[in-house]
What does this fold into?
Amino acid sequence: MDMNGTQRIEAPREKVYVALNDPEVLKQCIPGCETIERLSDTEMRAVVTLRVGPVKASFTGMVTLSDLDPPNGYTITGEGSVGAPVSRKAAPRSGLRRMAKRRF
It folds into this structure.
């Protein structure tokens, strides 16, 4: 799974940061996420189902928020498994930058 790039969101940075800490919003942002449950301020449990060609696999795992820097961003780490011994871990950095308003 490749989760990278930039997305411009026309909203105040503080509002976007709050939304990205909402499990229901994160569920919509994580490809294949079926369920996500908040366990603490920084930990959630998720079930993600992915399909690659004819192969479909469900992963159960943990989502952890670290390097919290409100309202600028955080690191979101996802670690899951489909059963021993297969597991995967990813830790992309989420950064929110204020964009300069331009008038044309």
The CA atoms of residues 51 and 57 lie 6 Å apart. The first helix runs from residue 13 to 19. Helices lie at 13-19, 23-29. The longest strand covers residues 55-69.
